[in-house]
Amino acid sequence: MSAADQMRAMLDQLMGTARNGETNSVKYNDPKVCKSFLLACCPHEILAATRMDMGECPKKHDLALRADYEAAQKHKDHFYDVDACDHLTAFVADCDRKTEQSKKKLAETQEALSDEVTGKANSVHDLAETIGQKLASAEKLGAEGNVEESIKLMEEVENMRKNKAEAEQDYRNSMPASSYQQQKLRVCEVCSAYLGIHDNDRRLADHFGGKLHLGFIQIREKLGELQATMDVRRPLKRDAKMKEIALGGGERDMAGSGRREIEERRRERERERGDRGHDRDRKRSRSRDRKRRSRSRSRERHRRRRSRSRSRGHGGHRRHRRSRSRDKRRSRSRSGSRKIKKEKEVGARESRDSE
Q1: Rounded distance, CA 195 to CA 185, Å?
Q2: Are 226 and 85 a contacting pair, CB within 8 Å?
Q3: Which of 15, 52, 184, 268 is the most exposed place for a label (fewest CB within 10 A)?
């Protein structure tokens, strides 16, 4: 981003979209605008350029719109914190589910240890994480100019390093050398990154002071703040909506952004129903095709069987006819030979009688 772009962004953030007398086509209350961004807690913006970069947010981000919202919020409560709370709740729940999956994978792939050895390994992990967090905090305080606080944290880090060395020695003595050399990993409960038991303090400090870990801390802290007020804010939002509808303000809202939002939701539902109906039609057509193919196959098999049986039947009749003709021929030849013998015998008798 150039210097001119940075200055333009700063002016937009301070003065809003109408700083030059021009009106923007998209308002802060448009459904296309990210409500979490207006409250500076959108995960797409916080985790940008990290290992878990999710790309651009599907909704619009504009610093000028945030300035317009902050100015309008002073005159009327928009209850956008309820929408942001729902967004962050879904995001954090998805991250926690991935963390549990990573833990299960580690439990399946890593060599199982006894309860005693596992407890010692966890104590080493805890000390290492605390050292990394304090180192990151000390560096941050030093950069801000709080040198005394930074020195105090470094003294605490030195004491914790001694405790970590003792815990590592105890852990090393409780298991074979071959098993100790293997890297024992652990999943970070905040950002689901993998941490090793043999990682040095510098690497842990880089992790706990990195943008990914700090971004998740910011998201989780913001979600905690919003959830603490949801028991009050949700009923207030519901009551405000009912009052607007009763006073006719709801109709004006319907004519503006509220109507567009409802229309978009209705279109999304219709698309989902259309997709479901399309899937059902495809499944039905596939089942019909399968039934047709099975029927045609069964018919073809039946035809083949019938043709085979007919061919066998015709062949049997032919063989039967041939056998009959052979029998007739044999009987004729036998009868003829008998007649000839009789004639010869009669002739011989007549010749004898004549003599």
Answers
A1: 5
A2: yes
A3: 268
SS3 for 76-130 is CCCCHHHHHHHHHHHHHHHHHHHHHHHHHHHHHHCCCCCHHHHHHHHHHHHHHHH
How many Å from the N-terminal Cα to the C-terminal Cα in the chain?
152
Check residue 345 and give left, alpha or beta (phi > 0: left; psi -120 to 50: alpha): alpha
* CB-count exposure of residue 124 (10 Å: 0-12, 13-18, 19+): buried
Distance from C-alpha of 59 to C-alpha of 306, rounded to nearest angstrom = 68
Q: Using an 8 Å Cβ cutoff, are 31 and 260 in contact?
A: yes
Mean of pLDDT over the chain: 78
Residue pair 136/205 in contact by the 8 Å Cβ criterion: yes
Please, are residues 45 and 37 in contact by the beta-carbon 8 Å criterion?
yes
Rounded to whole angstroms, the maximal C-alpha distance in the chain is 170
CA gap 198, 168 in Å, rounded: 9
3-state secondary structure of 1: coil
Residue pLDDT, tens place only, 320-353: 555 566 666 666 666 666 667 677 776 676 666 6
- CA separation for the pair 168, 180 (Å, rounded): 10
Q: Would the pTM of this model clear 0.70, i.e. be above it?
A: no
pLDDT in tens, 33-44: 999 999 999 999
What is the reported pLDDT for 328? 63
Alpha carbon distances (Å) from 266 to 34, 141, 260: 19, 51, 10
Q: Which residues contact 26 (CB under 8 A, 6 or more apart)?
A: 32, 33, 60, 62, 65
CA-to-CA distance for 241 and 253, rounded, in angstroms?
A: 10
Polymer length of the chain = 355
142 pLDDT tier (thresholds 50, 70, 90): confident
pLDDT tens sequence across 2-59: 666 666 666 665 555 555 555 557 888 999 999 999 999 999 999 999 988 989 999 9
In terms of pLDDT, which residue wins out, 1 or 196?
Answer: 196
**Beta-bridge partner residues of 165:** none
